[in-house]
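USER: My hope is that you can spare some time for a protein that puzzles me. I am handing you a single protein, as its sequence and its fold in token form. Walk me, if you will, through where the backbone shape changes along the chain. The protein I mean follows directly.
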Amino acid sequence: MQNLMLGFEVHQPFRIRRDYFWQPRLRGRLEERFFDVELNKQIFERAKNKCYMPATKILIEEIEKAEKDGRDVSFFFSVSGTFLEQAEMWGKDVLELFSVLASTKKVEFLAQTYYHSVTSMWEDLYEWREQVKAHSEAIKSHFGQDPVTFENTELLMNRRIAKEVEKLGFKAAITEGREDISGENPNRIFRLKGGNLKIFLRNYRLSDDIAFRFSDRGWDQYPLTAEKFADWVAKAQGKVGLIFIDYETFGEHNWPESGIHDFLRWLPRELGKRGVKLVMPQEMIKENGEELDFSSTISWADIRKDESSWLGNIMQWAYDDSVRRGEMLAKKFKGEWLKAWRYFTASDSYYYLFIGENSPMVVHSYFNSFNSPIDAFINEFYALSQFNFEMLRKAKINREPFIFMKGGKRGPIAWNSKMFEEIVKRNPQFIEMKKYMREWLR
């Protein structure tokens, strides 16, 4: 393999208060009442000191060294809007380093959903589009780039989403190299069937060797060195490979004492010695691609690699239904109400509710800010219910909502005739339901 795309997911959510059920906050700013500001700050600053600052300095140094040596070294980042908000509050020096990365012209910043949300799984994609547009604007504002490559939250992708990504004007998207669509070799360039959107598939084996096995002393390839890993990449078959991992891998999930920063520093050099060029996704867009289609939704999570890590059990369904109930009300009040509601849409809040066993549960437990999925559900659902109740009281609404259904799937939710009409206007497939509106409003 002569080309490798090496990229990093950078995201921090606004975590819901861990004590909300036991000590609900009824006054003050919405962000402070419903979300754990101190915990969010603590986690951000820890990741900043262990990962964001040292790892980013290494990348800048390696880009500069490569230019002096006449080598091509490029990377890409997918940075959530909520991460940018937290960096504005607690890590302006991190943003300054990211701006330096952007100024090198050797780093591509991808588009995603601003709130790192699961809204692409909803029947009505209006909110998803709004978050994607807001994120692209944020990337333009912070780093001066108009994103051309898209990464959906948690690499969630299916044909419906891919078609919408292309409609929004993106030239390429990245997702998981699950075997049912990639075969045995994901290291190829694909094109969406019936469209022009290029699709790059993550090589999850090579990615997970760094993300999950680097510090595993029981792994038969431990210790993983830059030389060894570069050999694996160089010997792999295919036109271009994609390695995409959480940025926190470099110092937070694997502590600096593990040698992970040295691995990051030496990897570009070792790849260069073996003739492997580090490229950005946007550099590969003009290449021809093999036709690809999706038979189901895929993601990068767990063994099943589908949407079940976020929408696979009754607690997650209940939480999602409650989130959807608040959408139209939050958009009615706008301001801090809309922003707070959008924090609730983050995939992390759904992820904490996962119930499973074996290795998937170990991974979920590691990332869970609550003691257990049950603990997460009690606090998250209660906080969200209280949030929705306050909006209903503010709007002086005392009726049950109208829930749109299509093909057995739950759609948007309206609380009054104005919201009803707005939903039908942006979703013509629901126009037949207007005949039920008068009866509902009685």
User: Anything to note?
Assistant: The chain has two domains: 3-292, 399-442.
